[in-house]
Amino acid sequence: xxxxxxxxxxxxxxxxxxxxxxxxxxxxxxxxxxxxxxxxxxxxxxxxxxxxxxxxxxxxxxxxxxxxxxxxxxxxxxxxxxxxxxxxxxxxxxxxxxxxxxxxxxxxxxxxxxxxxxxxxxxxxxxxxxxxxxxxxxxxxxxxxxxxxxxxxxxxxxxxxxxxxxxxxxxxxxxxxxxxxxxxxxxxxxxxxxxxxxxxxxxxxxxxxxxxxxxxxxxxxxxxxxxxxxxxx
Length: 233
What we know:
By secondary structure, this protein is of the alpha/beta class. Helix content is 37%, strand content 8%. The longest helix is centred in the middle third of the chain and has 20 residues, at 125-144.
């Protein structure tokens, strides 16, 4: 059942695909990224800032990364390509990411998939942030070993998209930005359909929230798109 449009939303509760400039994409190992690529520590839209945190991945994750990567014995490995997908909820990010992962091929990283598989509510912001932090670290390792990666986080703010681009470029990876959009009515229709299919967490998105997020979202400009590589396919 849909929540009434006037239902209050906590600033720390963010839905499927929603990101701010201070999200986990900013948690890049400073050693990996040039100083100019590091995201400044500051608040964005009233959301408390997070600080960079270095996390050590378990050995199992490193082994999994090696198994997924494309290796070439005794040769310098050419870094893989990063594709960043941006858009509001219901804009078609998952459909595009899934198609790209199959056609390139590439490894698709989406926190919602991991959270649903683990039975974690999609509105659990702290857990989402930790998953994104791990996914970014994993993505950089995969790119360095030659695998293509699709990041499906929503990335609403240009500052966050810039951080992802610069982190991948710092290891020599080409980076694409794919922008997906739809009319407000179409976005809402898709969101309602997902709710009917039971694909949300503890509660669905409301129409009021969607309209508010559409005002917050920073769509890529032509100037921003020009800072990315031309799509390979």
